């Protein structure tokens, strides 16, 4: 069984996720730690639960989701996994941080590229990779059928969707991704987004104004 721990970090109130199993292996998704105290918070959870980080993944590479990439790569000796279409987004991180007047320890470049032909393995558990572009050109979602959840980055929110006015965003592409890739999942599937509270596929089918 996979367990999920979420943290809300940085000025953008981004959700960072740790997925871990009974064997104490864990995957870090979208590390958004901006301050030293946020780094300590993540470290404390990993230490207290005796977890071993085995993988670092970005759903996409907007600045609020990658603040902690450099820290995690060096602290836990991890490789960074992204979709290849996110390379220019990752490379623009320093410029974006300067635009917002934010401090930024520049992320290392990704060393591993993943797409829907791959799976993420955490011990005996697997996450299917779903390609959900639109908010960003290489946005990925991660679905656990056995645990009935999906981590969607900024593709889908509680009764909302990701913005599409950033470079590489496209509204029609995002709606198509949500309708054809996410709304086909079982209604009871929990949705963990990059910002805000969790929801379910069934709830969004009924109440998301962008999908009705």
Terminal CA distance: 34 Å
* Overall geometry: globular
In N-to-C order, the SSE pattern is: EEEHEHEHHEEEEEEEHEEH
Strand order of the largest sheet: 1-2-3-4-5-6
Q: Pairing-aware structural class of the strands and helices?
A: alpha/beta
Report mean pLDDT, rounded to a whole number: 97
According to CATH, the homologous superfamily is: Ribonuclease Z/Hydroxyacylglutathione hydrolase-like
Binned, the helix content reads: 25-40%
Helical element count?
6
Question: What distinguishing features does this structure have?
Answer:
212 residues; alpha/beta; Metallo-beta-lactamase, Chain A; 6-stranded mixed sheet; 14 strands
Short description:
The protein is 25% helix and 29% strand. The protein is of the alpha/beta class. The model has no long low-confidence stretch (mean pLDDT 97).
What would you say this structure looks like, in words?
The chain is an alpha/beta fold and 212 residues long. The chain has a single domain (3-207), classed as Metallo-beta-lactamase, Chain A (4-Layer Sandwich). The chain has helices spanning 36-48, 69-76, 87-91, 93-100, 171-182, 201-207, and strands at residues 3-9, 14-20, 25-29, 52-57, 80-82, 112-113, 119-122, 125-131, 140-144, 149-153, 156-157, 160-161, 190-193, 199-200. Strands 1-2-3-4-5-6 form a six-stranded mixed sheet, covered by helices on one side. Strands 7-8-9-10-13-14 form a six-stranded mixed sheet. A two-stranded antiparallel sheet has the order 11-12. The longest helix is centred in the first third of the chain and has 13 residues, at 36-48. It is globular.
